[in-house]
Amino acid sequence: MSALSECCKDCNYWLPLDVLPMIGECRNIKSRNFGKVAFQDDVPCECFVERCFSGTEFYWCKDCQTTVYYEDLKMHKGHKVFIETSTLPIEDIVEYTFAGD
Fold first, then answer.
1. Could you report the per-residue pLDDT of 32-85, keeping only the tens digit for each?
2. pLDDT of residue 4 exceeding 80
3. How far is 37 from 96, CA to CA, in rounded Å?
4. How far apart are CA 3 and CA 36, in angstroms?
5. 23-26: strand order across its sheet
6. What's this model's pTM, rounded to 2 decimal places?
7. Nearest to 38 by CA among 49, 23, 16
8. Which SS3 state, helix, strand or coil, does residue 101 take?
9. Sign of the dihedral through C-alpha 60, 64, 67, 68
10. Can you spell out the DSSP letters for 51-99?
């Protein structure tokens, strides 16, 4: 991939927001942009890594809006698949947690 065609959406560590998929977040903990918002067509910082689907167990399929297990990745061929999974803050999903009062 040439430097001219690189953009955040092609980076291994860019994860789109589920509500506004043209906006995403840097998920590279070694990056100075970790946790910061980036548009899909932004020029990536020095931590750009081309997307690779090896060594990861769960993925996020933007087209299906669902988490995908690595064995099911072949069923999402041609979809926009990202390395991490979509997450929600715990306070938004308290009904799914086991908590005692």
1. 888 888 898 888 888 888 888 777 788 888 888 888 888 898 999 999 888 876
2. no
3. 27
4. 22
5. 14-16, 23-26, 37-39
6. 0.61
7. 23
8. coil
9. negative
10. ---SS-SEEEETTTTEEEEGGGGGGGTTS-EESS-----GGGSGGGS--
